User: Fold LacI family transcriptional regulator from Flavobacterium bomense.
Amino acid sequence: MEENKDVTIYDLANKLKLATSTISRALKDHPTISTKTIKKVKKMAEEMGYVPNTLAAGLRGNKTNTIGVLIPTVTQPFLSSLISGIEITARKSGYNVIIMQSHDSYEEEVSMAKSLYSSRVSGIICSIGMKTVDTSHFQQFVNNNIPLVFVDRVPKDFNTFRVIIDNYAAGYKAT
Assistant:
């Protein structure tokens, strides 16, 4: 019995007797491809069940359109609200989100940061764990021009973007 296999642009090209570059451009509505060819390619793609491989496309273009979120835990109300906002905004902008929890473990945080880096995320949003003293595991993002934003708990000695809530000032303004 034949196993189910993802349909690729090569399969579409073979079926339509077109170059893979033509298929790729047609799927992206490239202006150099005729409207007739675009319609034909998209119709065949739908019939064959073609789904673009965003990971492969991202790696070819050196951009995965994935944002990594590394937080201590999703159970904190502030952080769960933050994740919700990040996910909604990212999706509207064509990004996916990977959420990882360190559970306030320095070792887990280091491991998760390495995992996000090896996943070639397009950027990372991080709230460091309570036990984090050394933040050198984030330096690889900065060294490779991968946007890094610290929120809530931020390292004092790391020169990058940060978002901090001043609870004292907020409480003062509220009274």
The chain has two domains: 9-52, 60-173. Residues 74 and 81 are 9 Å apart (CA to CA).
